[in-house]
Amino acid sequence: MPSFKLIALFAVVAVVALAEAYPRLVVIDDDYLQDLGWINKVRVDDKAVKRRLEDLLSSRSVSSGNQSSWLARAVQCIDLTTLAGDDCPSNVFRLCSKASFPLSNELTDSLGLHHNQLTTGAVCVYPARVADACKGLNLLNTNLPVASVATGFPTGQTDLKLRLQEIKYAVQNGAKEIDIVINRELALTGKWRDLYDELVAMRSACGDSHMKSILAVGELITLTNVNKASVVAMMAGSDFIKTSTGKETVNATLPIGLVMCRAIKEYNRKTGHKVGFKPAGGIRTSKDVLQWMILMKEELGDEYLTNVYFRIGASALLNDIERNLANRISLEYSTAEEMPLA
Ligand SMILES: *[C@@H]1O[C@H](CO)[C@@H](O)[C@H](O)[C@H]1NC(C)=O
Ligand SMILES: *[C@@H]1O[C@H](CO)[C@@H](O)[C@H](O)[C@H]1NC(C)=O
């Protein structure tokens, strides 16, 4: 069963990657940081994006024999998220248990994994809940990273000083990853240098924690803006670029994802740095997530299909994957049982 070996290998790689002192993915390189002139040259051809995507989705699919292993991998890339006004220690603890043991024993067995071998990529909460999440994961004896949103999530509509303080507060409480929101006004008025300066200050406030920059693509109007914001966020040292907060009226879409993946590829070609990608907002079904994974694989390659470089912001998706895996497995069992009669 090669696919099981693949998952096991992936699990080992993921655990090793997390066990190391949370290495930064991106090291800031001054030469490129000063090259904001690049931003002015960026243009996105909307029609070409549409064509490439149609081509991709019509020519690539995950064969049904591979879907279980792809879905197990998707689970490992989920930032299991709760961002609600009534979050409290008990529901955050439930989230932590779910993230630590996302699939039932029966499902992990049938995937050829031990129960404690498969976890989600992280849990993601509001700053005030970071301490609860760290405590919960500690009790559960799992060393998943806690991600915190910050900088006046979801809108970012507050003073920069307060936004930076919020990052520090989350880091002090134990957040290893900070999902910041960009200042949309600066992006929409083309003040890329100011946006860059804010992001550099945020990057510095994150210290050793990773910075995931939410572009809030649903509010950026054009694909060209999405591309420019992606480049500025990467230049400022983001470890990940992320599509949406899940609170905008337009969520992550595949054309936007394609533009962001291309920006990541281009940035890698120019600087050698690998920046991760996190689609978020409205990704609810196994079918959705497989499309995002095909996009990652085809645009950026297998290396980017691990939770080191790929995260999915989601809350309901995990339930759908569980249902899907359970159906698949009962189907496989029943087919196997029927065989001798055939
Ligand atoms: C399915 O898995 C097999 C074995 O791991 C691999 O050779 C093949 O390329 C996979 N197919 C797809 C579409 O991923
Ligand atoms: C966007 O995603 C959020 C979070 O998953 C969801 O509640 C909302 O309904 C989605 N909005 C749209 C327009 O799909």
UniProtKB/TrEMBL annotation:
Write the Enzyme Commission number(s) for this entry. 4.1.2.4
| Sample GO molecular function, one term | deoxyribose-phosphate aldolase activity
Q: Can you tell which superkingdom this protein's organism belongs to?
A: Eukaryota
In terms of InterPro entries, this protein maps to: Aldolase_TIM (IPR013785), DeoC (IPR011343), DeoC/FbaB/LacD_aldolase (IPR002915)
Pfam families, sorted: DeoC
GO BP field: carbohydrate catabolic process; deoxyribonucleotide catabolic process; deoxyribose phosphate catabolic process
Ranges in a coiled coil? none
Gene3D superfamilies referenced in this protein's UniProt entry, alphabetically: Aldolase class I
Pathway recorded for this protein: Carbohydrate degradation; 2-deoxy-D-ribose 1-phosphate degradation; D-glyceraldehyde 3-phosphate and acetaldehyde from 2-deoxy-alpha-D-ribose 1-phosphate: step 2/2
Q: Which family does it belong to?
A: Belongs to the DeoC/FbaB aldolase family. DeoC type 2 subfamily.
Q: What is this protein called?
A: deoxyribose-phosphate aldolase
